[in-house]
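Note to self: keep these together.
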Amino acid sequence: MAPIRKKVCIAGAPGVGKTSLLQTFVYGAPDSGAQGLLVAHRLIERPGTDGIDLAIWDEPGGESLDANVKKLYRGAAGILLVCDLTRPETVSALVYHIPALRSAYPDAVLAFAGNKADSPECRVPEVDVTALGHAYDAPALLTSAITGQGVDALFEALAVRMVE
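Structure:
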């Protein structure tokens, strides 16, 4: 039996930590020098299967869902939406894009990361991130690519939801 393969795209405004989250999840630590489109794999163990092979696509930071980003998301089983807890406007940007994402990718499972939870300058309360999760019946956790807080748990929750 082969692993279950699922494509996940990471979306969010520039600078929210999309690439750092991917790198922390796959490699154990962020690499601040990485830029542009990244694709990485990690196998999630799942009882009764050969695991879930996540192909994680990190889009270059952008605020709009232009044609290139829409092509990138094609075939995605999951979309991880990332906001920066030190920049409240990044939550508003996610909320703005959700209807377009739901319309274009109605079968994709959503998950929300409130990133930079380790920062002493957090200005977005945890309740705002969890409210997004409740509103869209999606996993939503505070994360830190620097400390690893919540990173594995969020990707694992997304993986499980994609195969349910």
